[in-house]
């Protein structure tokens, strides 16, 4: 499979390493110094995008126009998802997006949903969510944390929203920490006067994210439609 990397920072380099290990070719490495129009898109099977929230919708639209499936790891752009969905469907394109491509994190998502449903009748426990990332992480809370929070809200009717600075007991408090050289840590705790229940995912490096992005690319290759990492995992199980 011939891959274009749209965004060639630390994550792009990690993806490149995994791609080559799995027998793929990286035929384009695009950053702020290399324009999209300088690439021969006819030689690209899949594009993997890790850039900035304000750029992601434009990049998706561009790849759809070029009939190149795109895997998007950038977060905090989903305000444009409705328009992007219409564009992808109208153009018979292919988009796979996720707040986190790590297989471990996606298993953690499922664990979080089950625990949230289990705890909804135990109102003595107060929920707290925290995440820690490297200082280059732009969005706060992270896209992964937002996914975890929204899944809790979908499965626990005791809460109506989340906030970095909550003003009432129906808001889930979330803390976003930025520390040098931390790939990503997410913790969900349920605390009462008697005890605490805690689940946590700690990424030791970027390899899990990079592998997931390649698995997503292998999944979307020669497909059309809109997919998430859940579709990739179902295909693997």
Q: Could you name the ranges where pLDDT drops below 50 across 5 or more consecutive residues? A: none
Count of individual helical segments: 7
At the fourth level of CATH, the homologous superfamily of the largest domain is NAD(P)-binding Rossmann-like Domain
The number of E-state strands comes to 11
Q: Give the overall shape.
A: elongated
Strands of the largest sheet, in order across it? Answer: 2-1-3-4-5-11
User: Which structural class should the secondary elements be placed in?
Assistant: alpha/beta
- CATH architecture classification name of the largest domain: 3-Layer(aba) Sandwich
Gyration radius over CA: 19 Å
Number of domains: 2
What is the CATH C-level name of the largest domain? Alpha Beta
The CATH topology name of the largest domain reads Rossmann fold
Q: Tell me about the largest β-sheet.
A: 6 strands, parallel
Mean pLDDT: 95
User: Distance between the terminal alpha carbons, to the nearest Å?
Assistant: 22 Å
Q: How big a fraction of the residues is strand? A: 25-35%
N-to-C order of helices and strands = EHEEHEHEHEHEEEEHEH
What does this structure look like?
The protein has 237 residues and is α/β, with parallel strands linked by helices. The chain has two domains: 2-97 and 207-236, 3-Layer(aba) Sandwich (Rossmann fold); 103-203, Dihydrodipicolinate Reductase, domain 2. The protein is 35% helix and 25% strand. The strands form two sheets. The protein has a six-stranded parallel beta sheet with strand order 2-1-3-4-5-11, with helices on both faces. A five-stranded mixed beta sheet has the order 7-8-6-9-10. α1 packs across α6 (207-220) and α4 (103-119) packs parallel to α5. The radius of gyration is 19 Å and the shape is elongated. The protein starts with a strand and ends with a helix.
């Amino acid at each position: 499979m011939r891959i274009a990397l749209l965004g060639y920072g630390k994550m792009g380099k990690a993806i490149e390493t995994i791609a080559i290990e799995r027998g793929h070719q990286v035929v384009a490495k695009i950053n702020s110094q290399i324009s999209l129009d300088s690439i021969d898109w006819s030689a690209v099977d899949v594009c993997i995008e890790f850039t900035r929230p304000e750029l992601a919708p434009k990049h998706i639209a561009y790849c759809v126009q070029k009939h190149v499936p795109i895997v998007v790891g950038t977060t905090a752009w989903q305000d444009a998802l409705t328009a992007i969905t219409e564009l992808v469907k109208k153009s018979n394109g292919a988009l796979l997006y996720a707040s986190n491509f790590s297989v471990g994190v996606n298993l953690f998502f499922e664990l979080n949903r089950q625990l949230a449903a289990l705890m909804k009748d135990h109102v003595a426990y107060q929920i707290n969510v925290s995440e820690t990332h490297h200082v280059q992480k732009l969005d706060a809370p992270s896209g992964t944390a937002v996914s975890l929070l929204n899944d809790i809200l979908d499965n626990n009717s005791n809460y109506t929203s989340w906030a970095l600075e909550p003003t009432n007991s129906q808001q889930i408090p979330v803390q976003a920490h930025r520390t040098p050289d931390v790939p990503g840590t997410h913790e969900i705790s349920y605390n009462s006067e008697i005890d605490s229940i805690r689940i946590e995912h700690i990424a030791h490096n970027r390899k899990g994210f990079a592998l997931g992005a390649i698995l997503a690319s292998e999944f979307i290759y020669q497909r059309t439609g809109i997919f998430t990492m859940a579709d990739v995992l179902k295909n693997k199980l």
